[in-house]
């Protein structure tokens, strides 16, 4: 189990701080375990993980709807554990939109401003700006039921931003949308964040969504942050087997470590092949290790001697997907080994049942925990 992770933002610069935060609902089982995280002002950070991993509980503690069992949450340097939700000045966007059905779009947006006792003129100006921000200038008089799912989500986003909070929390906000709308809203939220510079904490179980939108991602499992890093680092350099399998598609080969140094190791799989790998999170010589290898880092029919890892493979399935070819092979004891070949490089002639050679570089094959 990895140690709780911190990050590169110093505590002096942090706008939001979680310090040794724990949460238990029954006094026995911790759903969040020693959560430490510093978030800079204006950062877009995503809490990513499967259901029950603790990410939403952390968001609810930030919002004030849950109270930490242990530890502190600070906002702008001030502890907020005992501050009620409505006094935290935080915008919130939920998956179910949470719009008032009896109010028009404009009235929904005006509500948080009226609660703060702004003048009618100021309310009108801010509502108009918020509608323009989400491209719904002509929809102010409509009721939520008259809008599509994507439009309702835009209204929910606008309502969270209309009173100009310093921080916005989003809990699976795009989960109810279809694929094309979800992708459109991902870019829209990203662009609004870039324009406003507001701090955003985003919760999702969708790894592609997290990769698309985030400055950094905290990957949760079993109440612990398994890794905290920028999207490209999480994908290219996972710290453990869970992160490697949860972020993007990943080929896994399991074997015993037969040679080990600081910069290289050899792992023998059950079918006898010995694979050169980069030791990242290896228990030791003679121990089990999971090798992680991205499908796009595998070469078909590499030149002999060009790579340290070249093996015979049997083609089990070939699927044409437009921009790339997806080939499933049996190699090194793995019947679900995937190779992605970009369309731009031209496709080799592959047929089911044929034997080919495949290869990969040592540093692209990461030796992780078993």
What are its keywords?
disordered N terminus, 370 residues, single chain, six-stranded mixed beta sheet, globular, alpha+beta
- Assembly context of the chains: single chain
Using the CA coordinates, give the radius of gyration.
24 Å
Strand content: 35-45%
The largest beta-sheet arranges its strands as 6-7-8-3-9-10
**Helical content, roughly?**
10-25%
The structural class is: alpha+beta
User: Which word captures the global form?
Assistant: globular
Question: What is the average per-residue confidence, as pLDDT, rounded to a whole number?
Answer: 91
Contiguous low-pLDDT stretches (5 residues minimum) are 1-8
Total of DSSP H or I helical runs spanning 4+ residues? 8
Q: How would you characterize the overall build of this protein?
A:
The chain is of the alpha+beta class. It contains eight helices and 20 strands. The protein has helices at 55-63, 105-115, 120-133, 149-161, 179-196, 207-213, 231-236, 241-246, and strands spanning 14-24, 30-40, 44-48, 70-75, 78-79, 90-94, 167-171, 199-204, 216-221, 224-229, 251-260, 265-269, 274-279, 288-293, 299-300, 309-320, 324-331, 334-342, 355-360, 366-368. The strands form four sheets. Strands 6-7-8-3-9-10 form a six-stranded mixed β-sheet, with helices on both faces. Strands 11-12-13-20-14 form a five-stranded mixed barrel. It has a five-stranded antiparallel β-sheet with strand order 15-19-16-17-18, with no helix packed on it. Strand 12 and strand 13 form a beta hairpin. The longest helix has 18 residues, at 179-196. It is globular and about 75 Å long. The protein starts with 13 loop residues before the first strand and ends with a strand. 38% of the residues are buried. The model is unreliable at 1-8 (pLDDT under 50).
């Amino acid at each position: 189990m990895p140690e709780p992770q911190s990050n590169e933002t110093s505590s002096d610069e942090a706008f939001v701080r979680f310090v040794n935060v724990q949460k238990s609902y029954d006094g026995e089982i911790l759903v969040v375990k020693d959560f430490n995280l510093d978030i800079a002002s204006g950062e877009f950070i995503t809490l990513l993980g499967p259901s029950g991993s603790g990410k939403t509980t952390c968001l609810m503690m930030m919002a004030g709807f849950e109270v930490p069992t242990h530890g502190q949450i600070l906002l702008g340097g001030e502890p907020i554990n005992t501050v009620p939700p409505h006094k935290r000045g935080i915008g919130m966007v939920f998956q179910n939109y949470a719009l008032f059905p009896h109010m028009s779009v404009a009235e929904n947006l005006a509500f948080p401003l009226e609660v703060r006792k702004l003048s009618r003129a100021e309310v009108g100006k801010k509502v108009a700006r918020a509608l323009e921000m989400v491209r719904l200038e002509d929809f102010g008089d409509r009721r939520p039921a008259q809008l599509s799912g994507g439009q309702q989500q835009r209204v929910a986003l606008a309502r969270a931003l209309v009173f100009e909070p310093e921080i916005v929390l989003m809990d699976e906000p795009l989960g109810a949308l279809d694929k094309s709308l979800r992708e459109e809203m991902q870019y829209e939220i990203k662009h609004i964040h870039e324009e406003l510079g507001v701090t955003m904490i985003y919760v999702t179980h969708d790894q592609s969504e997290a990769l698309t939108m985030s400055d950094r991602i905290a990957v949760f499992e079993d109440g612990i942050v398994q890794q905290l890093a920028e999207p490209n680092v999480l994908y290219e350099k996972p710290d453990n087997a869970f992160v490697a399998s949860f972020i993007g598609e990943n080929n896994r080969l399991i074997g015993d470590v037969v040679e080990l140094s600081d910069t290289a190791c050899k792992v023998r799989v059950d079918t006898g092949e010995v694979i050169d790998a980069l030791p990242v999170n290896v228990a030791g010589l003679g121990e089990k290790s999971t090798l992680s290898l991205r499908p796009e880092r595998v070469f078909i029919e590499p030149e002999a001697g060009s790579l340290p890892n070249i093996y015979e493979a049997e083609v089990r399935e070939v699927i044409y997907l437009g921009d790339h070819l997806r080939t499933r092979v049996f190699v090194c004891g793995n019947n679900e080994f995937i190779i992605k070949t970009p369309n731009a490089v031209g496709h080799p002639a592959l047929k089911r049942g044929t034997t080919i050679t495949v290869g990969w570089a040592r540093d692209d094959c990461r030796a992780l925990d078993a």
